[in-house]
Specification:
The protein is α/β, with parallel strands linked by helices. It folds into 4 domains: 191 residues, P-loop containing nucleotide triphosphate hydrolases (Rossmann fold), CATH 3.40.50; 86 residues, no CATH class; 156 residues; 206 residues, Rossmann fold (3-Layer(aba) Sandwich), CATH 3.40.50. 47% of the residues lie in helices and 13% in strands. Strand 14, helix 22 and strand 15 form a beta-alpha-beta unit.
């Protein structure tokens, strides 16, 4: 790193950083990480860095990146898991560094194309009567007004949240884009953003879009040389999701209704022009045949697997008959007839027809792959979600082991790849994450402790005798809830309670609300996550209950959060189809899946949950782990050893003294 930049950012004269980054503190770990990232950029060698909370890892990698791209060709991708971190990078860190350093570099936020309003589709929808409900018509009226003044056309900038059905009819869809033939090409929000992306040297995106890019054979992001995965502990799960396939009854219903909805009399086939009435009539009939076939298919699924919410693994080929195969083939044939008869100058209609053909073919191939289990080394499963407006059935085929694909498509193709997170190591090394992602041993590794003084600012509360949740589930639950009540009586709010299941969270929520009328007890699912967090920050006597997504990516510094309660060790549910299949694969290789998969995965998640408490050097508080297995089971020591060193107690009175500043 150039000495002048290095001194300005990390040297003893830190006025620049203190001015641009509120609360900046000198951290030697940050310098170590910056030097390791710079070395990776120079050598092309992959790097794994665990940077404990407070290291300031974003600045540590941004500085070497800025040096790399300034005055030269090339592009770097920063991929994150949470939107919160993306916003921090794009709205705070990168602009502040650009201002402070006075260097000429360009950066851009990359979003999936469906986040953008399509002006052409919005104009066209104004007169084609596709909006079926009063809510859709009201929402489109609001979007019309917003479209006249927005500079980005990005959905998140709307001051209300439109329904999915409304937005899907007016957003930018890849297979509906007219490209250079679009009359609104010069005004297009998506292409304006794409032009900015191609001009940028640093691209900020998320793991979901990154793996969509990989799955699309590299068609979604501009070419790049280097990628850093921040929040890299989530990579295996996201990659598994995006490298698989899924089909739901809601997807198929929306697709068929978009073609023709006999109830409302609306849909594309109603407005198709330049094609004979007989061809249109035949297409409508085949749409109805496909609709009846879909009902038969999902009705058979309901008869076999039930209608209550659950996840069930499918183990045998032909568990369900693919009623949709022939009807979808007939529908594709009719759509091709329409395409052939459509006037050549009707670009919009022809684009929509091609999109319908492609989607029908994808549904057909996906259902065929799932029902006949055509994909090797995949796990097949069904998610049933009971909802007021109808039960949703989603069929999945997911890869069991992504390590080979990850290695081939990422580590072998891009150099360097940098992985970083506050929680990547288990047992003091990176073997677990490297094996899961197919990373070679010949990589650079760095583990950096947090600069925060946990010994002074944190107490780990491990209560005495609690029943074993694996052996006495209900007795444990009742005792754990009693313990939570004791803790809340002490903290009077300012507490996160983290669960491993919605069922226990919901039951606990009911019991706590009955016992604490003077506290505001919030739970995941009552409102969007960001709204819950805002309510929690503003409320002085507030408690928030959450499951897996609340264990990570949440930053609430200060006195708003002074206690984190972890109800159970976060072992993955063993009968989850993907988890079960991964464990079976390990067993077939002669490995103990509990030791080689369940424990290290749970250790990483526990570290994430623990990390919610201390977010700045001035924070202090209590972390309570209510699972007795950290003391009673042989593997418990691995969990405790993975946490930052801090005071421990099994006496709640001592925790109370600490919180009141007397201990």
């Amino acid at each position: 790193m150039d000495n002048n930049i290095f001194s300005l950012v990390f040297g003893k004269d830190k006025e620049g950083l203190a001015r641009e980054f509120k609360g900046f503190e000198f951290r030697p770990q940050q310098i170590q990480m910056a030097r390791a990232v710079e070395n990776a950029l120079l050598t092309g060698k992959h790097l794994v860095v665990e940077a404990g909370t407070g290291v300031g890892k974003s600045l540590a990698y941004l500085l070497p990146f800025i040096k790399r791209v300034t005055g030269r060709d090339g592009r770097i991708v920063i991929s994150t898991y949470t939107k919160t971190l993306q916003r921090q990078l794009v709205e705070k860190d990168l602009p502040a560094l650009k201002k402070m350093l006075g260097l000429d570099f360009r950066f851009a936020l990359c979003l999936g194309s469906q986040n953008y309003l399509c002006i052409r589709r919005l104009r066209r929808r104004g007169d084609d009567h596709l909006f079926e409900t009063a809510r859709e018509k009201e929402e489109i009226s609001g979007i019309n007004g917003w479209a006249l003044k927005t500079g980005t056309g990005v959905r998140s900038e709307l001051d209300f949240t439109p329904g999915e059905s409304t937005w899907k009819k007016i957003c930018r869809e890849t297979d509906l884009c007219l490209g250079k033939k679009c009359p609104f090409r010069q005004k297009c929000f998506y292409y304006k953003a794409r032009r900015e992306e191609y001009r940028a040297q640093i691209l900020v995106t998320n793991h979901h879009l990154f793996f969509s890019h990989i799955a699309s054979d590299g068609n979604l992001l501009p070419p790049f040389d280097v990628v850093i995965f921040d929040e890299a502990h989530t990579l295996e799960d996201v990659a598994t999701d995006y490298l698989g396939i899924r089909v739901s009854n809601f997807q198929i219903k929306y697709f068929l209704d978009s073609l023709f909805n006999p109830r409302s009399g609306k849909g594309f086939l109603r407005k198709a022009r330049g094609v004979s009435g007989e061809i249109i009539k035949k297409a409508m009939e085949r749409t109805e045949e496909a609709r009846h076939a879909a009902r038969s298919f999902f009705s058979e699924a309901a008869s076999r697997f039930g209608e209550e919410s659950r996840t069930v693994r499918i183990r045998e080929k032909g568990a369900l008959f693919n009623h949709l195969k022939e009807p979808l083939a007939g529908l594709v044939s009719s759509l091709k007839d329409i395409y052939g008869g459509c006037d050549r100058d009707r670009d919009e209609d022809r684009a929509e027809i091609k999109s319908f053909i492609s989607r029908a073919q994808k549904f057909s191939s996906s259902l065929d792959a799932i029902t006949r289990m055509r994909l090797e080394e995949h796990v097949y499963w069904l998610e049933i979600l009971k909802r007021p407006r109808g039960t949703r059935y989603t069929f999945f085929a997911s890869p069991i082991d992504i390590s080979g694909e990850f290695k081939k498509r990422i580590f072998d193709e891009i150099r360097p790849v940098i992985l970083t997170s506050a929680t990547l190591s288990t047992n003091g090394n990176f073997e677990f994450v490297k094996k899961r992602l197919g990373m070679d041993d010949d990589v650079d590794e760095l583990i950096l402790d947090s600069p925060f003084d946990y010994a002074e600012n944190t107490v780990l509360y491990l209560p005495g005798e609690l029943p074993d949740p694996g052996r006495e589930a209900e007795a444990y639950r009742k005792t754990a809830v009693l313990e939570m009540k004791k803790i809340l009586s002490l903290t009077e709010g300012r507490t996160f309670i983290l669960f491993t299941s919605f069922k226990m969270m919901n039951r606990t929520h009911t019991e706590l609300k009955e016992s604490f009328e003077d506290l505001r007890i919030l739970k995941q699912g009552e409102a969007p996550r960001y709204k819950l967090l805002e309510m929690f920050k503003r409320g002085k006597r507030t408690v928030l209950l959450g499951t897996n997504t609340f264990w990570q990516g949440i930053d609430i510094p200060g006195k708003a959060l002074e206690c984190v309660v972890i109800s159970k060790l976060p072992f993955a549910v063993p009968d989850d189809p993907i988890i079960e299949a991964k464990m079976e694969l390990l067993l077939s290789h002669g490995k103990n899946p509990f030791v080689h998969y369940q424990i290290p995965r749970a250790v990483i998640m526990l570290k994430q949950g623990f990390g919610r408490l201390i977010r700045t050097g001035r924070d202090r508080g209590i972390v309570a782990i209510l699972d007795p297995r950290v003391r009673t089971r042989g593997y418990g020591k691995r969990f405790i050893d993975a946490l930052p060193r801090c005071r421990q107690t099994s006496d709640l009175a001592r925790a109370e003294q600490f919180l009141s500043g007397k201990g």
